[in-house]
Amino acid sequence: MTPDFDAIVVGAGFAGIRTLYLLRENGFNVRGIERYNGLGGVWHANSYPGARCDSPQPFYQIQDEKLASGWTFSERFPEYSEIREYFKYVDSQWFVSKDFDFETTVVQASFTEDSLWSVSLSDGRRLTARWFIPAVGIASLQSFPEIKGIDQFQGEMFHTGSWPISGVPLKDKRVAIIGTGASGAQMIARIAPEVKSLTVYQRTPVVVIPVSPEPEKGSNPHLSSLTPEGSRAAFERSPKSFSGLDFSFKDPESVAIGSPLRDIQNENLYKQGSLGLIWGNFSDVFANREANEQLYLSWAKSAGAKIRDPIKRSILVPSKLSYPIGVKRACFVDNYYESFNRPNVDVVDIRKEKLTEITKEGIQSGSTHREFDIIVFATGFQSLSAGITKLNITGKNGLRLTDAWKDRISSYLGLSVPGFPNMFYLFGPQGPTVKVNVPTTVECQAQWILSTLKGLRESKIDCCEATPSAAQGWVNRLTQRWNDSLYAKADVWEARSSSNQSEPLWIEGIQKYNEIIRQCRAPEFRGFVKLQPKPAARL
Fold this sequence. Notes:
CATH topology of the largest domain: FAD/NAD(P)-binding domain
Largest sheet: 7 strands, mixed
Number of strands: 19
Distance between the termini: 10 Å
Radius of gyration: 24 Å
CATH class of the largest domain: Alpha Beta
């Protein structure tokens, strides 16, 4: 049986666009499926006030030199509107929209006896392909808390992950924000000056680091990298670093734990803003509790000094954090803590004052009822596997992915799953998704998929599948390193499975990951079993 396409790619964010383009340019017949009505993935949906990327340019873009030569970002951390314009520019150069079906979702994807993927779509069509490539990422399905009365509120309710592109009038409104992750922190700092009142419901304190350097005389030295030449140099360095950015960990033996020199360095890194405080620190901060606590106290001294009210300070910057600093992704926002100095901004610690009910007029927490015009859920996304399992995928012998991952997620290279031949996913479970630059991970994985599919095509092999033993070895590696680190001591949302248990993530960085997956490409295909095609099934 001849398939409709060589490959079907699901998702039109960084991963889907890059993979579809690379395959198409190398002679593969590819079709893309996207639920939104345009390119950009999460950036097509992210339009809440204050939304911007927290990885700096020129790294946070598709890592293609020719593409970068015609586009320059205006700032290191552009807002969502500029990122959307960037995706329009990408389409003007690569013409990828013509290869996507927009406002379409995958209802079911099944591996058939003909060694093809049969993909049923929301519009009633059924497409077949040799390879099935989910590129839906880990932040595709919003998470809502289970709160009594959530349906009875008579005001307006929104989730930051689906903010109306037309905007929401907030001036002189009484607003509640539930959650202080990245979207919550960004929105708080942006809307505090314009709303009548803002009440923030916080469960877990977040570590917030300024985006911009503290004011200095002279020009901004970072803007010189926002050029085509700067992009080319960044793309060269990116896969050779731990994070995919211009940060590298320092030798922990160079400065003893507890030394005042570490405090001085931490203070300087904090003043520089952005990711350096976490990703440019000593490597032992993720393995040694004492080193981690010293980093936290240094950060807390700098951040806490921005908050005048001692009660608010104790809630936002407690003397001891409930999780090791850095294992949960820090937020990078200017004027976050300063916003709580405003008389119209308050914070509620829902660990002590439990949020019990949403009423017709507002929110009940503890013995206090507060009235609001607007409630915003900045409560993030479902488990890291939710996006891909939502596709209703069935592999060999009727094995459903939800069943295969019911007890534990198991993959090989964070790209392939035993029992699901010819399926490769990007930026998903057990691949580099934390403490890394998204486009760098995407570039490594998309190039690997291209190399693999080309190798299979040249060898006239139509089917390959990760072996259970290879997957077990991968899981064992992840688990050992995870348990040896401080990551295992925290409830990290990216590490929660659909069954709400903790799953080990890849924490060894981009460079090491890239080295490993390169060893598993054609012609050896290490860790994969290859099946010779039936005569009628050849491409």
